[in-house]
Specification:
single chain, mainly alpha, Endonuclease III, domain 1
């Protein structure tokens, strides 16, 4: 479950400013291939390296947007340590949306729109 939490949050974080969830969802494979789904790796990267990997992974939105998203991804990778992802998984099992939202709110760039997208993606994953 921790992988789906991290992946869904990354997709939701990137699905802003005229990029739909579907559009970002379509590049999740390439984003994974360039290492952006591995937060241990991401934490060791610079802002420029994350921005370059976004572009290489198909999320090429220009220097400004890719750098802005790089800052947000680095914040997400910092907040979502292995221990925090395990804690979030437990909160999901317990149905503690408030606790999950509190963690999400501590990530740069996460607001109501990103949270709505994240919860929509999580809902899709709960289907059998």
């Amino acid at each position: 479950m921790t992988d789906s939490i991290a992946e869904n949050l990354l997709i939701a974080l990137l699905a802003v400013n005229n990029w739909s969830l579907e559009r970002v969802f379509d590049v999740r494979g390439p984003l994974r291939d360039v290492g952006l789904m591995d937060f241990e790796t991401v934490r060791a990267l610079s802002e420029d390296e994350v921005a370059d990997r976004l572009a290489a992974g198909g999320y090429a939105r220009g220097e400004y947007m890719n750098r802005l998203m790089a800052v947000r991804i680095l914040s997400m990778a910092t907040v979502l340590s292995t221990a925090e992802l395990a804690r979030l998984s437990e909160h999901f099992r317990e149905g503690r949306q408030d606790a999950i939202d509190a963690t999400l709110n501590s990530i740069k760039g996460v607001g109501p729109s990103v949270r709505r997208s994240f919860w929509a993606l999580q809902g899709l994953q709960k289907q059998p």
